[in-house]
Amino acid sequence: MATDIDTAPEAEADASSRLKLTEIFLSLQGEARDAGWPTVFVRLTGCPLRCVYCDTAYAFHGGQWWDIDAILEEVARHGARHVCVTGGEPLAQKRCAVLLRRLCDAGYVVSLETSGALDISVADTRVSRIVDLKTPDSGECERNLWDNLAQLTAHDQVKFVICSRQDYEWAVQQVRERGLDRLCTVWFSPSFAQVAPRELADWILADHLPVRFQVQLHKQLWGDEPGR
């Protein structure tokens, strides 16, 4: 069951089996390799970063405590095969690793949306870890944990949200110098209302980059409506 953090004196009594959640909902995956699949999103509360383009600031605070068993029950109720654990920054809660393992054990196709500022090695390798490397214009570039790159497998994904031409050139440098395309799938995504999708697409084609272009499908359908 879910319990409100402000009215649950027992919240710390069994902390080892709880996570603080902002929402659980069914939608279409709007990004990365699983785009278009009906997906259950488990949005954890809290994030240590403050990216300028963040569209989920409502997940920074508040939330409810959920038992991990209850999360699994709610996920199952939606009847989808794909599950995405997101935030906020889900890895900021240590028990996120337990949830990821439990979801994999239950047979779901699991992805994790993470900022790349925290150690991804805690996540089950059955999970497709989508690491959002922060560009200079995100305001959080210095938070990138570059040691994470050594953890990447072909099952994982790297994403760059491009806010400007400067960001694009920086991201190109990272891809080429670090050989990111040889590690896993690399995505370039235009920051909503900062870079025109067509402009970014033209840059990628002109430079013959070994990356995949994406726009956020869910925003095309529902804008910034929470829970969609």
Automatic annotation (TrEMBL):
Belongs to the radical SAM superfamily. 7-carboxy-7-deazaguanine synthase family. Pathway: Purine metabolism; 7-cyano-7-deazaguanine biosynthesis. Its EC number is 4.3.99.3. The keyword 4Fe-4S applies. Catalyzes the complex heterocyclic radical-mediated conversion of 6-carboxy-5,6,7,8-tetrahydropterin (CPH4) to 7-carboxy-7-deazaguanine (CDG), a step common to the biosynthetic pathways of all 7-deazapurine-containing compounds. It comes from Alkalisalibacterium limincola. Mg(2+) binds at residue 56. It catalyses: 6-carboxy-5,6,7,8-tetrahydropterin + H(+) = 7-carboxy-7-carbaguanine + NH4(+). Substrate binds at residues 28-30, 43, 86. CDD domains: Radical_SAM. One of its GO terms (biological process) is tRNA queuosine(34) biosynthetic process. S-adenosyl-L-methionine binds at residues 53-55, 88. Residues 34-224 form the Radical SAM core domain. Keywords: 4Fe-4S, Iron, Iron-sulfur, Lyase, Magnesium, Metal-binding, Queuosine biosynthesis, S-adenosyl-L-methionine. Its cofactor is [4Fe-4S] cluster; Mg(2+); S-adenosyl-L-methionine. NCBIfam families: rSAM_QueE_gams. Homodimer. Binds 1 [4Fe-4S] cluster. The cluster is coordinated with 3 cysteines and an exchangeable S-adenosyl-L-methionine. This is 7-carboxy-7-deazaguanine synthase. It is an enzyme of class 4 (lyase). The keyword Cell division does not apply.
